[in-house]
Amino acid sequence: MSLPQILFLVVGVITLGAAVAVVTSRNVLHSAFLLALTFFGVAVLYVLLDTPYLAAAQVLVYIGAISVLIIFAIMLSRKVAAPDLVQRNSQWLLSLIVAVLLFGVLAYLTLQTAWPAAKQALGVDAIGGLGEAFVGTYALPFEVVSVVLLVALVGAIIIARER
Amino acid sequence: MNLIGLLSPELILLATGLLVLILDMAFHGKEGRREWLPFVAIAGLIVFLIAASFLWGTHTSLLSDMMAVDSFALFFKVVAGLSTLLVILASWDYFQGKTPYEGEFYGLLVLAALAITLAAASTDLIMVYLSMEFLSIGSYILVGYLREDPKSNEGAIKYFLYGAVASGIMLYGMSLVYGVTGTTNLAQIAQVFAAGKLTGDMLWLMLPALIMLLAGFGFKIALVPFHQWSPDAYEGAPTPVTAFLSVGPKAAGFAILMRVFLAAFPAFQLDWAAVLAAISMITMTLGNVVALKQTNIKRMLAYSSIAHAGYILIGFASVALDSPSLFNGVNGVLLYLLGYLFSNVGVFVAVIAFENATGSNQIPDYAGLIKRSPWLAGTLFVLLLSLTGIPATAGFLGKFFVFAAAINVQFYVLALVGIVNAAIAAFYYLNVARYMFFVPSQEESHVAIAPALAVALGIATFATLLIGLYPQPFIEFANQSVRLLGVF
Fold first, then answer.
1. CA B34 to CA B40: how far, in whole Å?
2. Nearest to B370 by CA among B457, B435, B450
3. Which member of B63, B137, B179 has the closest CB to residue A139?
4. Three-state secondary structure call for residue B482
5. Does residue B485 or residue B335 have the better pLDDT?
6. Min Cα–Cα distance to chain A from B175, Å
7. Rounded to a whole number, what is the distance in Å from the CA of B117 to chain A's nearest CA?
8. Is the ipTM of this complex over 0.85?
9. Alpha carbon of B440 to those of B372, B417, B434: distances in Å?
10. Reduced to 3 states, what is the DSSP secondary structure of residue B60?
11. What DSSP letter does each residue of B127-146 carry, written as one string?
């Protein structure tokens, strides 16, 4: 096993552990911080997979904006910040079994398959290629995303605005 | 035709939606002028339908194969335009005093129609995902529109949580498809399979991938077992939104399901047809049996719309595009959707009219409606007959075509289950009619209907009867619309 592979495993375990802690922690503020750690772990995985641009975007957007926003939201709502949140309901065991089974199936499938798409080489100029794809091949999805964000924004105002 | 011309229907919808949102801000504090906003939305939708009609017969793909301009997409443009038009008419009086954001409602509704047209035209998995997410986000907001109403909130949050999981699963399925084929373009995916270079275990991987995709599509259509959100969302949502949800996103879900499976996975038809046939039988049976017990008419219609999704799926499970028969399955789905659009939105308009006048959604409160408003009772009766599938209504034509498609490919059990279910459904539809006509009411006061609602009800009833009595042009329209780009 080479060094990057060992690193990948270690970071992967930390990321997963943090993710599990997000949904089991009784203190919602702890969950928020652990979520930031999870996002950071994913960013490191991106670096290990040779996609530094995605890693930078992950840090900027998810850690820099989303996590901070979540922590702000928690601090502004006093009732939720109380450290005795029950994150389980009566069906947790059942859903755990289903989740583990689903994971087993997916892991088996992923390991069994010799993914043809994985052999496609990344471009030399990945960031330039990404930029060109946004205004070239993926111009339509790129424009549609802007409308989706507008709709989400209008919706957020309707739902959350003070009356 | 140039790019602007080919995209003109979508651009008109986008412009209309944004215009309504901007005008709503510009008219802030001028309530008299805000009343014009629904007219702006309706005018935009009519221009959209006219622009779409110019594209009849055009078959091409746009913007690096991201979306198709074909008869199939055009059909769903018509469905999206008409259903949104009727829903806007139906919501005319509904929101008065219930929300301060009435203007945004029309803007969001028009943008949701844009999402449906994009969904039906998508020929790339990325566009499929994006347009479905577009439609879902719009729908979540619309369901939770009545912020002060806990039921509206409950429906929206259930819809949202369920939708987030479903789209996550769908995305995972898409990533499996991409991993095996190395492309997200539907036509190229089909080419990879047709080339036959893939080995056994990779082909086997497609079955879980297809089921995961189906989870996402089935969620939008509310197929069993992806339906649990729908009764709560339908009951809690503002009733015009319920009318929209029961037709618009359902049609979009079917459009995507048919295009993705026909364009990308024709090689696996034996697999997915069997899965869809099984889901179809479970869906209609569960929808109908549970609908029997409902006393709230919105909940009853929610379960009945699940059952209708099951009937519609019969058509697609029995698809045989190269069959010489008139009943190739897809035209049955399209005809059913067209008839269902008018009948179901029509029923909801009647429910809204009754709710506006009496504040109730309970079926026993419909007692004696024939005396309180003969017109409302009469049109509602016709529309319920159409949902039951009685001859001379649009509902019969759709059921006839999907059942015939099942018999055409010798899915006799599927057809039989469908027919038995249609008989079960008659009980709860005609139960409403029984209350309206035969159960005397304590209440004698007249049920007044607002003009906009009367227009919507009139259009829906007229179209339901027209499709039922003079089906030839509609059958022709559906037959022409079966032409999917790159498939047929």
1. 10
2. B435
3. B63
4. coil
5. B335
6. 10
7. 12
8. yes
9. 11, 36, 10
10. strand
11. HHHHHHHHHHHHHHHHHT--
